[in-house]
Amino acid sequence: MVGRCCSKTYCRLLTGPIEFNPDRSMKHPAYDILNVIGNGFRQIGFWSNYSGLSVVPPETLYARGANRSISNQKLFGVIWPRKTEVKPRGWVFPNNGKRLRIGVPNRVSYQDFVSLDNHTGLVHGFCIDVFLAAIKLLPYAVPHEFLLFGDGHKNPSYTELVSMIRSNVFDAVVGDIAIVTNRTKIVDFTQPYIDSGLVVVVPVRKLHSNAWAFLRPFTPLMWGVTAAFFLTVGTVVWILEHRINDEFRGPPKKQLVTILWFSFSTMFFAHREDAMSTLGRMVLIIWLFVVLIVNSSYTASLTSILTVQQLSSTINGIESLITSNDPIGFQVGSFAENYLHEELIIAKSRLVALGSPKAYADALERGIVAAVVDEQPYIDLFLSKYCKFLTVGPQFTRSGWGFAFPRDSPLAIDMSTAILTLSENGELQKIHDRWLNKKVCSPQSSQSDQLHLGSFWGLFLICGVACLVALLVYFWLVLRKFNQYYPETSEPSRYGTSYSTRFQRFLSFINEKEEVTSNRLKRMQIGNGYIFQGKKLD
Prior knowledge:
Layout: H1 2-6, E1 10-13, E2 16-19, E3 30-37, E4 40-48, E5 52-54, H2 58-61, E6 100-105, E7 115-116, E8 123-124, H3 126-136, E9 144-149, H4 158-166, E10 172-173, H5 181-184, E11 188-189, E12 194-196, E13 198-203, H6 220-241, H7 252-265, H8 278-307, H9 318-323, E14 328-331, H10 336-343, E15 351-354, H11 357-365, E16 371-375, H12 376-385, E17 389-392, E18 399-401, E19 404-405, H13 410-424, H14 427-436, H15 446-449, H16 457-485, H17 499-511, H18 514-527, E20 531-532, E21 535-536
Parallel strand pairs: 6-9, 6-10, 14-15, 14-16
Antiparallel strand pairs: 1-2, 3-4, 4-5, 7-8, 11-19, 12-18, 13-16, 13-17, 20-21
Helix pairs in contact: 3-13, 3-14, 6-7, 6-8, 6-16, 8-16
């Protein structure tokens, strides 16, 4: 029938009339576009070489002018496999058309990582957000559904959860799954999306202050330098004030006592001697400023040392914990139990299962366990809420968390690439900050409260330079007056003119009171015929 129809210019077939041009080409060719759905189909538009894609029958468009612009190329909505209108991104995984069954641990504690929202019935958390963000970066759609694993009363066994991939109960496992050796033998893991490792947490108890607690704010070097500067400043002020201030004169024993008293009384701003010289006042002002800063810092540090809780434990890391016979806490469902027993050969009788952060705190405070061993991400959250504990020693294992898939799964490779992309573009860090960026409060040790010289060397340097400059100016002024009183060109006296004799004269000159020296110099000037009281002496 088709052959006979092609020999004519007009023919009617089962689907309708067909017209041909004289050259046997179809006149106004048009096709229906069908959306196949299971065993049925639905029409979603038309195509013709006159109008292109459209939702209007081509016969209706022939009477109009041809318009094949992009804005006119339209079809009705397409129903994709699994009855969704979401356009797929490419190859669909799994290729059998079923949704990916993803096992999720039904956690009781640390629900910031993964948990069930009772209001919406959806699974959420840090791990879930990372998984969903990585899925969006794949070049194909991955239909999936989250299936909870666990009774909701205690944390499930993660090793058992991972093994259900091998038994075909789940197609993947998403959550805070640590990548450890025994699990990598049965499943493939993605690239780690967060670093992890086991750490030791111990309680912090307040130490009783001893009789020498007042010495702890400063390090020994700081104490030594401070004491040296007290004596140095006292000596410098004594030198600057000795010739003009009666309070800094007298017998040698009295002057020594004055130096010591003045030096250390400035610590409390209780010095009764007043500085009269300009240089002495300058040095004293700078020194009192230094004393003010040092005193304030000392008071604050001593208060902190006497009130802050201090570490009181013989455990300083995993090594000392192993050698002791103390009980050790671990998180229910964590791989820490097997690691402590099988790898570190710690007796199971020493291991105590704990189900929540509150259980951690209670067991540590009551002495049920001497320490808790858990992964770093959990401990960071624990310490953000409970501040009476701290970690000791470094991480003694290095691992990470990843998503688990069947062996040789192409999805594991693609998800690893997606996780690396999230890490490089900063999205992974944003997800981390949204869920886990909580302030960790950890008590400080007494050594961290000690004040070191490095914090004050600038103040001491300024004070030292001020003292040096003041002494140089002072000795220059005194030396100039000395040369006026004992010029080098003067006739030799009975003491001779040797350098030692002149130096002895200089020391005697410094020891004299300024008033006496000035009067003597005036008498010398009068005797030499200088102007006195505005009149020239003959």
